[in-house]
Amino acid sequence: MKIEVTRSGGVAGIPRRGAVEFAMRGAREASDAEWAALYRQARSEREQLTLGEEADDVAGPPSRVRDAFQWTFRFGRERVEVPDSYLSGALRELAERVLAEGS
Fold first, then answer.
1. pLDDT, position 16
2. Into how many domains does the chain fold?
């Protein structure tokens, strides 16, 4: 599995990017197991965000806060954009860890 994270916006407007790749099954390193566990936790939160967006379509997309970060995730071929105010729990931990430890 390959995960890419981009954090854009903020006061300075300087984007940060990071990416990690790990094995979900089969022969893998200890760090792969940690990444896979965090991804699985974050996946359920990601799905809840997607369900919430579909319910919010009537009211329009979530408003963006001036100078707030905007997060873009790529999980394989899937792309998800999340305003900073919506990012929490395992999904936030995954995002910050990818930026800190990814290439």
1. 96
2. 1
